[in-house]
């Protein structure tokens, strides 16, 4: 009999759900902090929670509501304090600002399988020691480095490798001269948070190896026994890719990257066009090591081990086959997750499987909501920042909805093959409908063919492609069969993707509309009366019909995304939109259009009327092809020559001084270049299209990369240059922004679109001094992130990096 006043076990069980919810809530609140508190503050919160737990232990005489509230408060404080304390401990190892951009001599061990790309490779280095000018310095323990071989490429020519980069192997110790900087990603609404991703990966410094003619040669110091699993992964990946080296695409070579992704988790091996196909058909989650793969691997391993154990009766007398199979299956699934790279989705699944398995082995039979909450709380306790990842919500919402809506299908009450097929259909239908609002909220688009594609793709990839890929490690010819199986699936997916209604894109709504939509989807799939299920449609309609606010007639707004070193500016009126430039191309298979602009425009619900490309330079046209592929009705204007590659995609109308048009009470005018300039200009910068936008009261000026000569000419011609908002010429180069030009424009706000610590040194200090002397407020994309300016509030500037700031984001001086 328990001591007087001590909580009984049954009463403790009643506190589990509020305690788990409070833990997750405490973590969620801490993740909203813009700045971290001192570590002692989090420690004090933790001590307070422990003190309250002693009070709860003696609180049996209190009403149940009091005990429940006390338990929730304790776990809320524990979730908040533990996450904050971990964050402060991690932040203490951040790269010192004074070491950014300095030549450092580092010694360390390659700690992960390197990723090759067309310009070299990217790898992680576990730091052992570092020196600056022969003096030891302290650096973060994990560095993410790039080693470039040197490339040469014209604006539209393929990349050409000039110097080969040596093959690196995990466990090798190297001495390298490097330049580092703090992790600094693009900061855009609805965009990927690279800084959060690196934080979660444990990386606090990125950089590149100095391997120029005047740099000391990198030195390989030997092979260690560390990171043996990573070395095995690289051996398998290289052997797999080498098997298809030189083979024709029709022989399966194109799909070898999918096999590499399924075996060792190398998602970089999958081509960009193939990713587009998988996303359009809703099967991208199958083409990498996801929670589904790990779960099904555990299920298969459990079944096989249980069957083998039952064949030996003496062993069954020692331990039940069901328990041995369960433990062995989870252990093998964990081993598979480790070999595949121990990615965050695989980690989450392993922790969830372990939690559920321990509950079952302990003989406890909790209701499914408590099991679901416990698994989520365990994952959040191990990786608090998973709460901010789309994959976390997609996986846990899918599991929760299946628990809530599938009943007999999940418990195995029906055994016939027809019943099993029916259960499979119903489960897939439930997941598709339930995740549609969440997918729209997170990504702004949903595949309408995902149900048809996943019905075939899930069993095909799980039971055919993945086993062939894994068994190919033992017998390589099976990789050929695996590639053929992927090729067959890809043909089926291509037929679905070609349908006109395959993908629906909608603007990304506020979170509260997404929450209402998810509730509506849940009502649709639950076994409820028809009236209640139909009410779910009413809850989903606002999410499906929502449109973002636009400027009123006679007003316009300027939105400049954070794209790095390049230009891209969106101008919107009440019913029209213009994109000025399309950002840079980062590599042959990666550009600002595909990575940033297309998702951003889709999230805003923008349909472009005009894409204006100022001139041919790569940092202005690199993303144009991807933007045009999405914006099928947009016209194109620019100063591109007749033979430019973009002319084959859509005719490019030359921009000429004197061109004018009106949209919704807003006047647009091209000021430069003139027709004669096309024949005599020696540099593309001299042909930059200059566009002025005005509503009669406020105006904006977009000037591309014009230089001092073009500025002087515009002044001599008496062009109407005055503007309230200015896109700083040539990213702030010292060849532009002459004093007479700035005096004529006289802007109150100016924006520099340039990459953080870019190699050109933009913006130049001398240029910034000219703006400062005229009291012009200068914003740059590295500090500001995406910028928004509205003609209705010309003195107000919104910077996304400030509005969405969290403690893991880089603080620039």
Structural class: alpha+beta
Quick one: CATH class of the largest domain? Answer: Alpha Beta
Q: What's the CATH H-level homologous superfamily of the largest domain?
A: Ribonuclease Z/Hydroxyacylglutathione hydrolase-like
The CATH architecture classification of the largest domain is 4-Layer Sandwich
Number of helices: 29
Name the helicity range.
40-55%
Distance between the termini: 63 Å
Mean pLDDT figure: 88
What is the alpha-carbon Rg in Å? Answer: 29 Å
Descriptive keywords:
alpha+beta; 8-stranded mixed beta sheet; globular
SSE topology sketch:
Layout: H1 9-14, H2 16-30, H3 39-57, H4 64-91, E1 104-110, E2 115-117, E3 120-132, E4 135-136, E5 142-148, E6 151-152, E7 160-161, E8 172-181, H5 194-201, E9 205-209, E10 219-223, H6 228-243, H7 256-264, H8 272-280, H9 291-310, H10 313-318, H11 321-339, H12 344-361, H13 368-382, H14 390-406, H15 408-411, H16 417-443, E11 445-447, H17 450-471, H18 477-497, E12 503-505, H19 511-525, H20 530-545, E13 557-560, E14 569-572, E15 577-580, E16 585-587, E17 590-591, H21 592-604, E18 610-613, H22 618-621, H23 624-630, E19 635-638, E20 652-654, E21 660-663, E22 666-672, H24 677-680, E23 690-694, E24 699-702, H25 708-716, E25 725-727, H26 739-745, E26 749-752, H27 765-773, E27 777-780, H28 781-784, E28 787-790, E29 793-799, H29 800-803
